[in-house]
Design brief:
The chain has 139 residues and is mainly beta. It contains two helices and ten strands. The longest helix is centred in the N-terminal third of the chain and has 7 residues, at 27-33.
């Protein structure tokens, strides 16, 4: 399986299929992604390889130990080693194909954003900005 950042500078490969993803709803994950939750997975370090772009990666670490690695060109969060383990944290949105993968765990739901809702109760549009006209009629 292959993955890359938004601009394509940082590339990596993972051996095997990824079955399970998690979504973390904590305030740190919301801030680092700008989204309601951070979708990711963990893989064994022995099955993870950088293909290109390691020199483009920058890191930010809070005094608490929370670490965010990102592409210095486009700002995409990129994989990093999970401290004290042989595992690598991989943002799910960077992976090219997740055919059999599903979110199986939601973490830190007690600190989820108050504006977050389950998608089953939200309006779902198949298109992008061109669908806003339809959305405006619903609101």
């Amino acid at each position: 399986m292959q993955g890359e950042c938004l601009c394509g500078s940082v590339n990596f490969e993972i051996d095997g299929e990824i079955q399970n993803l998690y979504q973390c709803h904590c305030s740190l994950c919301r801030k680092v992604t700008g989204a309601a939750a951070n979708a990711a997975t963990f893989v064994k370090g022995s099955g993870f390889r950088w293909v290109s772009g390691q020199s483009e990666i920058r890191s930010y670490q809070k005094p608490s130990g929370f670490r965010s690695d990102f592409c210095s060109s486009c700002g995409s969060p990129v994989p990093n080693s999970l401290r004290g383990t042989e595992m690598v944290w991989v943002p799910a949105g960077l992976l090219d194909e997740l055919a059999v993968s599903r979110v199986s765990v939601h973490l830190h739901t007690a600190s989820a954003a108050p504006w977050e809702q389950e998608s089953a109760v939200c309006v779902r549009l198949e298109g992008g900005p061109e669908s806003l006209e339809s959305l405006n009629k619903l609101l």
